[in-house]
Amino acid sequence: SLGPGTADHLAWFYGRDLEGLSASMDWGFFSSPGLWHRGVGAHVHPAGEALVFVGTDPSRPGSLGADIEIDIGKEHERLHVTEPSVVVMPGGVPHGPFVTHWVDRPFAFFSINLAGDPGMTFID
């Protein structure tokens, strides 16, 4: 069974925290496999966002050190992120859940949403 894959540390910043900028973001570090948010399935945002996955080994910038699966769209396409990547998610496209299958080295994740309030709506 998958363990708790939730971030070791996660911070959220909305437009009101960013001097009224029409954007919001979050960032965190992950070191364990498992479901990111137990009991939560797919969600949508009205505005687009960039999902950014970054490795933490400065001697291997091309290595993420993990395998993260993202369920995308109404068709439930499964995307596996296994290297540092940016996944562009248009507004209105369902995405989630996120599952980390394995972690060799902690990785960083951040997202940038193109609205001051990401307006997350859970649909599953």
Question: Which key phrases capture this entry?
Answer:
4-stranded antiparallel beta sheet; 47% strand; 5-stranded antiparallel beta sheet; 0% helix; mainly beta
Question: How would you characterize this protein structure?
Answer:
- The chain has about 120 residues and is an all-beta fold.
- The protein is built from no helices and eleven strands.
- β6 (about 65-70) and β7 form a beta hairpin.
- The protein is globular, with a radius of gyration of 14 Å.
Order of helices and strands: EEEEEEEEEEE
Number of contiguous helices: 0
What is the arithmetic mean of pLDDT?
92
Q: How would a crystallographer describe the biggest sheet?
A: 5 strands, antiparallel
- Low-pLDDT regions: none
Strand content: over 45%
Helicity range: under 10%
Strand order, main sheet: write it out: 1-2-10-5-8
State the total count of DSSP E strands: 11
What general outline do the C-alpha atoms trace?
A: globular
How far apart are the termini?
A: 21 Å
Class by SSE composition: mainly beta
